[in-house]
Every structure is written in C-alpha cells, then in structure tokens.
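During the no-cost extension, the postdoctoral fellow (Dr. R.K.) reprocessed legacy sequence entries with the updated structure-token encoder. One reprocessed record is reproduced below for audit purposes.
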Amino acid sequence: MGQSPKQEGKTYVWPIASNQLLSSTFGEYREGHFHAGFDIRTFGRTGIPCLAVNEGYVARLKISPQGYGKALYLKLDDGNTAVYAHLSDFNRKCDSVAYYWRLERETSYCDIKISDSLYRCSPGETICYSGRSGTSAAHLHFELRDQQERPFNPGFVYGVPDKVSPIIMSLEVVPLKDGSLVNGYPVQRDFYFDVAAEDEFILPDTLQMEGQFGFGAVIWDEQGYGRYHLAPFSVELYIDGVRIYRLENDRFAYSQSREVFLEFDNYTGGFERRPTLLFKRRGSTRADRMGSGIVALSNGKNSGRDSVDCLSMGFHSGKIVARDLAGNESVGRFYFFMHGYPRVRTAVALESSNDVIVLSDDADGGKTQNRLYQFIPSDSSMREVFLSPYGRYLRGSASEVGVARLFRLDVTDDEGACVHYYFSGGSSEVAEVDGVMNGEIRDNVYCEFTPFVTMDEFGLLIKSDYTIEGIPHVYRAEHGGGDTAEVFMVGPREVYALFPRDSLRNGVNVFEIRGYGWGHVRFESVFALRALLLRSGSKGTLKLGDGGMAVRAPSLVKPLLLVTREVTEPGKAKGSIKRRSPVFSLDFRPEYLRRPLDVICSTDKRVGLFKWDDKKGWKCIGAPFMNQGVVKVEMPGIYAFFEDGVPPMIQRISREKRSAGSGFFRSSVPFCSISDDGAGVDPYATYVKMDGKRVVSEWDGFRNRLYIPVPSSLPGGNHRLIVEAVDKCGNSSVAKFDLLIE
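Re-encoded structure tokens follow.
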C-alpha cells in the first residue's frame, strides 16, 4: 500500500495557521465516493492563511461552483500532492493567473495546470486562504495524495489530538443466501449495543441465526471538542476469538470511489442508519480490507469455501474492535446461536369441538416448547391455551365452540429461537376482529407492497390490513403460480417474499399474494411493477403514464436489475414548478454502476427531471432538452418530471466584507441574490457584464448569491452591470445595475 511521509522519516507542516480540530476524517461516506481527506474546523471564519506543508510548487488551480469550490494542488518534491479545497483566495500570483485566465476566455470557472517553474514554495509559506466555496460551512478540506494520485490518510503524517475512544452504537446482521434468517427475518436487522464499561459495549440479547451472514456496525469517533462523527481508522471483526475481517482507512484510488456503496449500507436517516460493512462484498478491490468477514453454518453447501468461515452448530461469540489514529480503542461484544429454526408441522382448530391440535419439530433434532394463545375479541387480548400430549401431537381446549377463532402458536427450540404461526378455525357465526365480521366476503383486503433489490435477490415487503392466517403464497402471476417466492412471515400482517434476481423479466411483472385471513377468509391481492435487466452498453424502455423514457447503462460492474413503479407523491412541489408525469421510483444497486445511468426522453424545453430529497424536497438533476435529451442518474430514489416556466428572480446589488486574503481582490465583494424555486440556477449559463464586457462571477448555491470579485487594480468610479441569470430548464432573466467602486 506504500509508505507515508512519516514512515519515511519526513515531517510536514500543519496545513493551516489554526487548530488541529476536525469535523471529518479520511474514508467517511459521501454520496458516490469516499471522503478523501481531513476537514479542518475554522469555526465560521474565512481567510485563514493556509500553508505549504513541504517544499514544492503549485501545480493546479481549479474553481468550480460545486465540489471542491476553489482548490489549489501543491506538488511536493517528494512526489506526493497536497490539496487545499473550499478556499476563499489563492496567493496573489495564483489569484492573478486564475482571474485573467477566466477573463480572457469569458468564463467564470477553470481547471488550470501550471508549470513547475511558475511558483515554488517553502514549508510554512502562505499559498492560499480558507473559505467556504462549494460548501455550506466554512472549513479547510485538506488531502494528501501519493505518487500514483491515490489519496492517503493524513493521520499517518499528523498527530491529531484525540483522547476519546470510538463509539460502537449498533450491529447490523445481513443474510447473504436464500433461507438465511436472523431472529426470524430474511433481511438485514439492526441491534443496539448497551454500554458495559468504559470503552466496552455489549449486545444485550443473544441472536438466533440460520444460514450465511455478514456483519456491519455503526461506529464513529470523536475528538472530544464538539460532537462531530468521525470515521475510525481501523475496525476488526473476531468470531470465537479468530479475526475474520479487518478494514483500515489507509488509501484508495479514485477508480475505487464508487466502492463506497460496497462498504456502507446507506439507509435514510443519517449516520445512525449507515453501518460500515465488516465483510467483503463481490467487487471490492481495496487493498486495506483483509479477510471475508462472512460466516455460515457448516454444511455441505458452505464447507471448503475459502470466502466463508464455516461455524459449527451452537453458541458463538463475536467481537468488534474499533481504533482511531491516536490508538484509542473500543470493543463491542455480541453472542449468537447458529442452528436451524423450529418448524410448525400441524396447527388445526377443529370446527366441531373446542379442540386445537398442534405439532412442531426442531430442524436440529432437539426439543421444542409450544405455547398456544387465543385472541379474545371482547378485550382484544391474547389468552394462553394450555397444551397436553395427544399421541405425537399436542392438544388444547379453546373457548367459544362454533365461533370463528384466531390463534397464535409460539414454538421455541433448545437454543431460544422462536417462530410465531397464526391460524384460525370455527364456523360462519358472527364474531369480529380487525373490524371485520366473520362471514363477510373479504375481496378487498388492502396489501401494501414495497419492492427492494438486494445483492442477489428481488424482494417484496407485504403489509396487510388484515391478520393473515398461516403463510400465504406469493408468486409471479404471469407464471400461473409456478414461480413462487420464498415467503417469511414476520408478523400477523407482515411477510417478506424473496425471488431470485434473474426471475424477473423485462417489462411489466405482476405479483399476486393468495392466502387466508382470520376466520379462514380467502383473499387475493395483486401488485405490478416494471423491470429492466441491463448490461454494459444496453438500453431499455419504461412506460410512464401516457409517455415513456429509455434508460441506458454506459458501463456496469455487473448486470443491473432496475425496478420502477408509480408511487404516491412524497411531498408537494414548491414555487412555480408543475408536475408533468406520474411520480415514480427507480430502485437499483448503485455499486453496480461504473458510470451514471442515462435517462433518455423527449420533453418540452422547460421540463426537467427532479429527484425527491427528504430534507430539501424536489430538486432538479437535469433538463433533457438542455442536454441533448439525456439526464444522468446516479442514485436510486423517487423521481418525477416537472415543468418550470418561470425565470430566476434577480435582486439588488449588495456587498459582503471579506478578509483581505492575498490582496489581489478588493475586500468588499459585490453580489446579487438570485432566487429560483424551480429547477435552480445554472451557474455555467449565468453571467455578468461590466461596461459591456464579460467579467468573472462566482455562484454560491448554498447562499443563492452571485459574487462579482473585483481586482484591487480596477479604477474607482461608476460601472454599469448587466446580470443574466439562467436556470437549469433554460429560463432566463436580465437585470441592470450601477456599481460604484470607491
């Protein structure tokens, strides 16, 4: 993986004339990539001098309205590169180069490669100034890259003060093969640690697991100077005292950026719903990840596989060890049984008597404990029905003979695993449960279907408004019931249905659930969605209301299953935009994309594709008409096409007082606020003219301001400004102002 400068005996100057307090560290999750350096806190201040960390020369200047904003790249004599981002200014010479380069080309943004003879610098020399360009809060983003341009952890070079051990909040258990269950669920489950002692955490309950699994954990570190959630340096996973996985936030190549989706499970809700995965997924190529991290019950299917640690049936211990770069260490302990789950063989309530007959067994050959409960409608409670031996069966006596009755059988094995099975019996005499009178024909049972895509399977989470008796059948309706899903009942009204990924076909897929509700009422419910199976370079079409669109996959890691359906609008659009399509979801595995998907469609000039953001609402990601009919899509989510026919609104000129910086620009910076509640301002199409000539302007999308940096050399006096603001759908507005420069 290469040596750091510290390992080679070199020392670097701290990159800013400020403290060593961080708000982010190396290797953290960012949407679509890993965080590649340190975010150094400036406590809201801008204009703090940033220092050359060692001998070298300024090799690159980049100014962009997004991403790193204003950034400087310092090529060091030892072959490494230091990157300073979100700056307010460069040094005077670099400010001059960047300004006049843009002025000559009539553009506001640049990416300039610079000769090694233009500006050399010494350790500790001021080369730029901290700012907030391209970001919402002022700070310095600082990176170190090796000779192969791979970012590596700056913590290898600098001793950052840290006396606080990492915090291990929760454990994620991820089923990886068909039939795998954790506490009865076939999908990933989260479990929260308790604090056992200083720097020690323990899971209070013993897990029940059958099949093949990987683990994950929500872990963060703190410096102790504000509650920022920082990534630890290393995490290790031990099973029964043997280390089976280790990750280090050492370094990565930019070609590995999208592997961030292989390293984290990202659910909505922030960092607390974003566990770091402690097993190696297919496609992971990072050299600072060691071991498979996958465990399975030892059997004929798993034995002999190098990528799986096979465990015997029985009790096992797990341990997670998290460390930060200062050497502070925390331990999280958990325990689990690996075994087969108990099974219900018979559960019958006789209609002619009050007898209930049940039979269960243990997949491992052990004993089972059976407890039977009957639902009592009068007080909505469950009353236990005592069971006694009846040959090889167990028998109990229920109440209210001849009336429809609902039962729950709880079966527990020797290791503590428990399954719940619901069933009913009785006649057509009237009784009420779930607000329905027994004897009614229940042909309108409401079922809510939520599709999801895992690494190897397509699944449906089905929630009913009616208590389900037994395990229902879920299948592809086009196959006449032949393509049946693997179904897991996890509650009286909730089931998971899992299909192999390749069982879906291109186009419309119809799924049906058939079963019995309480009182042995038969019900059916149908659900439809559209699917595309894409390979690199392939294209498929999706119908959308009265229209449609095509989706092209330019480059994939592996074949991609894309699932779409019309969904309820999650929130109303604000401002001037009007919806021009149904709201639809796009569900796929983003880690399979080497390049973003192309959504191709023919729309009117003022129509854009918007993505729903839980915090910001509808946000335009592109307008097909403005981009040759193509919009880039990188992430699953909820989408819709909206029309925006209203141009941005340009407000009056104001001024902002800034620190002196390099002195190349005046410290009083003119700006005009531009508001657009629709598609949003297009910073590359928006421009300013001064006295009839195009000048440099810089868009700040976080503050909705268009800044007009004025060189100190510009003579004082009155100047005429023309500002044209253009949004992403092509709407534009023009305003004229007088600007007095004193």
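Residues 427-442 have pLDDT under 50 and may be disordered. Residues 535-643 form one domain. The remaining legacy entries will be reprocessed before the final report is submitted.
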